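Record type: monomer structure entry
Structure origin: computed from sequence
Chain ID: A
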Amino acid sequence: MYDVDDLYQDVVLDHSRRPRNFKRIEDADRTREGFNPLCGDRVTLFMTFDGDVISDVSFEGSGCAISKASASMMTESVKGKSRAEAESIFNSFRAMITREEGADVDREELGDLEILEGVSAYPTRIKCATLSWHAMHSALVEEEKTVSTER
């Protein structure tokens, strides 16, 4: 029988070794770069929209297993969602991973992303797990081009 730590490790390793949506979208509507100077993680996020719906999302980059796995899982979770739905998932994920006091974490909305909650036990890894998410948020709200975990 699996325990939560084993499941967490298996999921992170699987997504890190075989990341989903790891590709460049040449005609992306939005592209955002993210950088974590603490550990050197880099991500470029690509998004295309069909009206208000994220029709495709992908990423390229390099980084630790947590960074890559989180980006992979994020792309799976927001593809086909509206901007508002993706923003809601971002807020729930951020609240869960940072253990934001009093925040509303919709665990049903998070689905498989909930397995990454284990990252919250390692404060130095939280930035690894949230880098791609902040790049996505920046793309959704049309903020600056490059996201840094140190700003």
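Annotation 1: The mean pLDDT is 91.
Annotation 2: The chain has one domain: 4-148.
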